[in-house]
Write a structure and sequence with these properties.
mainly alpha
């Protein structure tokens, strides 16, 4: 419907970035490819570096989903560098979060995940972005726990709101499997209601 209104180039770029984000959480790789590619084309036409950075983030997701790991990692590095140069903490935090998720959750590389969490948490004015701050702490705690540092993971979890992935992982690592199962079931149901297939898939994996 929005496309039918023939928005201007800048508005169209924002629209495609939003469509790409929806495709990430909907796990629709084909749609992610088309939307992120078009967003990148429009950002380059506008010569808008911040928009190009956000388009790059979604291209990185697409590359990762297709198994093009080196390309995806390079795009995250590029986005993070752009964010630092532009003093865009929000963009830098998302870049760090993406790499922490990919390395910590998918590639079983907690050391690299920890490094990216540290880079994200060191960004200036991160307190103005509480969601990104807490997501990075969540992933840092997961990386700590995966490395056997459960005491440090528990300390991090204590500073976060209830319902985090780290909280569920700590239940699992501590042998409280029934509570962990109940927690993952509840999380999977929330994801199903919100249409979040990405987190729903991860929660279903750990539930299994």
């Amino acid at each position: 419907a929005e496309l039918a209104r023939q928005p201007g180039t800048r508005q169209l770029c924002y629209l495609y970035i939003g469509m790409a984000m929806g495709a990430v959480f909907g796990v629709r790789t084909g749609q992610l490819d088309a939307a992120s590619r078009r967003a990148m084309e429009l950002a380059r036409t506008l010569d808008d570096e911040p928009l190009a950075g956000w388009a790059c983030y979604h291209r990185a997701w697409w590359a990762f989903n297709r198994g093009r790991l080196k390309e995806s990692q390079s795009m995250h590095e590029r986005m993070y560098g752009t964010a630092v140069r532009l003093d865009d903490t929000g963009m830098g935090a998302w870049a760090a979060f993406g790499r922490a998720l990919f390395n910590g959750m998918y590639l079983a590389d907690p050391l690299t995940a920890r490094g990216w969490c540290a880079r994200g948490l060191a960004l200036p004015h991160l307190g103005a972005h509480p969601r990104q701050h807490d997501s990075l702490l969540d992933h840092l705690g997961q990386a700590m726990g995966s490395s056997g540092e459960l005491a440090e993971a528990r300390r991090i979890a204590a500073d976060l709101d209830p319902g985090t992935v780290l909280e569920r992982m700590l239940l699992y690592w501590s042998g409280d499997w029934e509570q962990a199962e109940a927690s993952w079931l509840a999380a999977r149901e929330r994801d199903a209601l919100s249409g979040d297939r990405l987190d729903g898939t991860l929660n279903a994996y750990w539930l299994g």
